[in-house]
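Quick entry between incubations.
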Amino acid sequence: MNFDFSDEQKQMRDEARKFLSEQCPPKAVREVLDGKASYDKSLWKGLAEMGFLGVAIPEQFGGAGAGHLELCVIAEEMGRALAPVPFSSTVYLAAEAILIAGSDAQKQKWLPKIASGDAIGTLALFEGKGNPSPKAVKVTANGGVLNGVKKPVPDGAIADFAVVAARTGSSGRESDISLFIVDLKAGGVEVKSLTNIDLTRGQAEITFKDCKAEPLGAAGEGWSVIAQVLDRAAVLTAFEQVGGADRALEMGRDYALDRIAFGRPIGSFQAVKHMLADMYVSATLARSNCYYGAWALSTNAGELPEAAAAARISATQAFQHCAKNNIQVHGGMGFTWEFDCHMYYRRANAMALGLGSLSYWEDALIDRMRKKNAA
Amino acid sequence: MNFHDTPQEAEFRSIARKWIAANAPREFEEELSKSSLGRIRLAKHDMVEVGKAWQKKKAEGGWACLHWPKEYGGRGATPIERVIWQQEEGVYGKLTQPFQIGEGMCGPTVMAWGSEEAKRRYLPKLAAGEEIWCQLFSEPSAGSDVAGLRTRAEKKGDNWVVNGQKIWTSGAHYSDYGLLIARTDPNVPKHKGLTMFFLDMKSPGVEVRPIKQANGMQEFNEVYFTDVVIPDSQRLGAVGEGWSVSLTTLMNERMSIGARLATGVPEMFEFCSNLMLEDGLAIDDPAVRSKLASWAVKASGLKYTSYRAISALSKGERPGPENSIGKLVSGLMLQDIATYAMDLEGAAGSLTGMDEEQANGQFQQMLLSSPSMRIAGGTDEILRNIIAERVLGLPGDIRVDKDVPYNKIPTKGRG
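Done. Structure below.
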């Protein structure tokens, strides 16, 4: 058994960590936090140059052709650094949708641009409150023309194109849903930025008015592609969450060692030690579930749906737990704008919802476990 | 990243599997696979006798204590081969319960600190299950703070004379030998006045009394010592060095990689899949699903954490400290699961009947037994201290009795 990343993958993680610690210190994250930029453009360019944007994109489409395990180790570092770039929407959602369902021409058109940092992509799925569900898709597509409103769309305001889920039938079944690729710079598209709790990653509302769109994949197969994309993205974002959880735990640990109260480091009080120990437990359980998800993703195993849900739930809980208790360990200083704790707290709670809420994934996990037990 | 054996591991697994298929006591397979939680019981046979027979057979085939050197009754196997053996032994591993303290704690301590003569005399018989060992550390006034123990050993000529009391001793009533830590000097600080011994449990003056536990069962014992004589040749380590010796024992307790910890999750999943509530099956209820999912990811997290440790072993690395989280997570989870399962049964949940409608009373038993899971082998609080100090590098607790002679340490709280 080798339930671990290879030495080469670990080396790639070290490179990513070094690169991000230099190019994406908290000061850089704060440029976006404070609204001075919509995302970190120079970091985005650097990520492209390092080959990180296209790490899982095959070489024939301009990528590095490494694989999903390599993408997992990079995702962890992106989460750790709170990188304020449209990485998850472009790489986990848009690129994966095209890899799964795109024609050769579509892959040739978009994937090299993603890998080179020349195109930001996203997935336009949600339409207001609620979780991923074919029933919630109201945007219509008639003869390749879209009408309706999507929100929230991650990084929608800075994206060049979107994969859009739209209704092409009215049978009440999943097969009513089809996918389209829309050039967001073309006509019939109106984009509005939305404020959200994570100020380092944007959300948008996108209105389609008689917007011409190109089908992605076969008509009526949109939902099955969405389900696959969500499972893959669940594993990849779980690695970001674990990276964030680990960093929040480290911040709490470091502060507990440095801060003196009642004449001793606060990390010598059991109430604080036990809180940090519990954070470590959450983060460790999440990491182990993520490794299993990474294995399932990289081998496209039949276990992926269950493994993805478990990784997603565990990592969501761990990041929320570590981010909130990191503030608690810091006390009053943790509640200041000046300290970085709130950036992790914001990110943790926004990420907990991005692909569907915790209860959505809990529900999915139980369904998937039942299916396995029945088989 | 894969779940495959290396060629050597695969070969070892295949040999082990063949031997088990030809030798395991199949007649107990069903009964053993059913009893997943708590202590193992066999309806018509004595657990210790059946266990001894299996252990003897394993020893003859070279499969007992396989990570020990051959000259002491082992196989000289690698750590990963030991894990593979445990996986292959499967339900029959439950039969080794009476020997686990000997194999996991007493044996390694004798191996590290005993004379060559003692090692050759005691270890092979321990490995073969011929002689069972218990561990005599905890006392009524020394649990988490085991260094505060009171049992006295006084030197008389070439012997030591022991007086005092131990508690929570698993298997003392069927053990042949015991590993004993006692105070040999009360005038120095508590960690410095301790010495380690082993003794024949049939020695005059040793009295074993079962403890009736909170769950009504009797699995642990009190052991009383009245003028018990131990030859100085049965001392392990120098006089006053008992604390260092005990650390060998406790380190081994926490090194058991790949040990199967009950989490209660498969039982709970099964229970919720069959339990009919007013509005349908429990597993279709959103609140139930949410709790089940949270427990399921803890259980899978523990499983894959142990896989990571096994992978480290397979590469010849020492597994990291992440393995220390197992008992901390599973103990509390068992208790929570039991409480919730009974809640779903409503008023009838308090009944302890063994009928099928109530899932054979397993959750009621789990509820009553689970407090011990959070205490034995290191309380939840001690485990959190270990994680905080050894993994996260936080400061140790302030020890107000650190430099105080043992006999000057207060022994009472109020009044």
